[in-house]
Recover the amino acids of this structure.
């Protein structure tokens, strides 16, 4: 059974690994920010991972009428710009693993995380590496004390064999949200 995405995000009460596929970037951001805000209101920590400047994310939150400054000030919300893992001297995967371990150790449980590690998933290599990370996270999700919302723009997914990529993404999450437009978007547990 599918429901409207904001209703789905508002009803979360058990930790989940959630896939957000968006065609409508504005509505996608509204879902991401609501997901975080709902947790912060409940006293959870929040982490927004970005490949852009953190201030850009803050500006988008304010533009969406979601003022997170109080949570940033009290450090219950962090907005982190992801490092360039391909420049890590220990290699991409070890660099990512170190980053994730360090970041999770600094979060107060329970927490909510929004984002994706690999910035460019429009190539087969980028998507392949991201899928390795999704499988790794999903297989170990029981050891994570929180919710994770993995974000993808539909147009970033490699066109060649896009159904295969989508199938693999869906298989490695507990729920999926399709944010193509507010009146057409749906969410469902898998």
């Amino acid at each position: 059974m599918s429901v409207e995405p904001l209703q789905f995000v508002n009803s979360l009460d058990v930790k989940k690994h959630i896939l957000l596929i968006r065609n409508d970037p504005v509505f996608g951001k509204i879902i991401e920010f609501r997901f975080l805000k709902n947790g912060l209101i409940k006293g959870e920590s929040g982490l927004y991972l970005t490949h852009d400047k953190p201030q850009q994310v803050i500006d988008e939150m304010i533009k969406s009428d979601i003022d997170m400054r109080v949570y940033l000030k009290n450090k219950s919300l962090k907005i982190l710009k992801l490092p360039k893992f391909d420049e890590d001297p220990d290699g991409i995967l070890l660099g990512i693993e170190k980053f994730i371990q360090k970041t999770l150790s600094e979060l107060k449980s329970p927490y909510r995380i929004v984002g994706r590690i690999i910035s460019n998933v429009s190539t087969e290599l980028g998507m392949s590496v991201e899928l390795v990370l999704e499988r790794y996270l999903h297989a170990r999700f029981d050891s994570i004390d929180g919710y994770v919302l993995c974000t993808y723009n539909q147009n970033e997914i490699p066109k060649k064999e896009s159904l295969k990529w989508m199938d693999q993404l869906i298989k490695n999450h507990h729920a999926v949200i399709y944010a193509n437009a507010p009146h057409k978007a749906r969410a469902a547990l898998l």
